[in-house]
Design goal:
The complex is a heterodimer of chains A (about 140) and B (about 60).
Chain A: H1 5-13, H2 29-38, H3 42-46, H4 50-69, H5 82-92, H6 96-103, H7 115-141
Helix pairs in contact in A: 2-7, 4-7, 5-7
Chain B: H1 3-22, H2 26-50
Helix pairs in contact in B: 1-2
The chains are: A mainly alpha (about 140), B mainly alpha (about 60).
């Protein structure tokens, strides 16, 4: 959706370089979003933002890798306390890396010194990828250049 | 690895992610990265110092 004159003016006056609000629709939004969820950065690569896609892939993977190094918890419980469900949904946002970790039996070590920090990194990685899904959708529908 | 270093790494990753997500030109990306990175890192240190005025008190009894 193209921005209104007011939003264009706000974007131009806030010191950022984002003067162009919308762009041309590109690709299939659902496919872009699905790819973005499955593999971090893949949605952007599909939408011809290759450099961004590769960097996003690296950032999300490094975040999750550090979380695993610290033996953080990989939430995979979708029942019970609402916060646990929210954490599971956040981690699930990482897509294939999340399922790979589950497949190899990774769960984290509660007694490890970096357990809480690692959990934070793992959830952060999933949440980052969820934002990438939304970004890929916006680019594909033309809401974002 | 120290807790401070982990926090700095986390701030750097968050800053890199959002600067790339929200800005398109490298100068704007760098500016936003520095804002997020320094805001998170220095903000956490400042918050830590402020907690000096709110001591945690004795430990809670074991159930």
């Amino acid at each position: 959706m193209k921005g209104s004159p007011e939003t264009d003016a706000v974007a131009a006056s806030d010191g950022s370089d984002e003067q162009e609000i919308g762009g041309e629709p590109i690709g299939r939004p659902w496919l872009a979003a699905l790819l973005a969820w499955l593999v971090p950065g893949a949605g952007h690569i599909y939408l011809r933002r290759r450099a961004r896609g590769v960097i996003f892939f690296g950032i999300v993977l490094v975040t999750m890798f550090i979380g695993c190094l610290l033996d953080g918890r990989l939430y995979s419980t979708f029942a019970g306390h609402p916060l646990v469900i929210a954490a599971s949904l956040g981690s699930l946002g990482a897509g294939v890396p999340y399922f790979l970790l589950l497949a190899i039996g990774y769960a984290g070590v509660p007694l490890a010194a970096g357990y809480e920090y690692g959990t934070t990194f793992l959830i952060t990685g999933g949440l980052m990828n969820l934002l990438l899904v939304l970004d890929a959708w916006d680019i594909s529908t033309g809401r974002k250049p | 690895m120290s807790h401070l270093m982990l926090m700095v790494i986390h701030a750097a990753l968050i800053g890199a992610f959002f600067s790339l997500l929200w800005r398109r030109q490298w100068k704007a990306q760098l500016f936003l990265f520095l804002k997020i990175f320094l805001g998170l890192s220095l903000g956490a240190v400042a918050l830590g110092w402020l907690m000096y005025f709110f001591p945690s008190g004795p430990p809670a009894p074991l159930p």
